[in-house]
Amino acid sequence: MGKGRSDRRGSAPKPASGFEWLYLQYLLVTGLYMLEPWERTLFNIVFALVLSAGSALLFTFASSSIPI
Known about the structure:
Structural class: mainly alpha
Strand content: under 5%
Helix content: 55-70%
């Protein structure tokens, strides 16, 4: 290697930023990093469906109970 080149083999990877950092935090907090990719996808789909149904129910019943 020449004097002007840097060897990247021993350097640490670039830290995540933005949405990638939030997604990695989500994986760590929920423990999903231990699952295989297909299991993680299935869990995320079920989680999104439950969250969507809960939000729809909350919106439906909360909006009908609030007098205008």
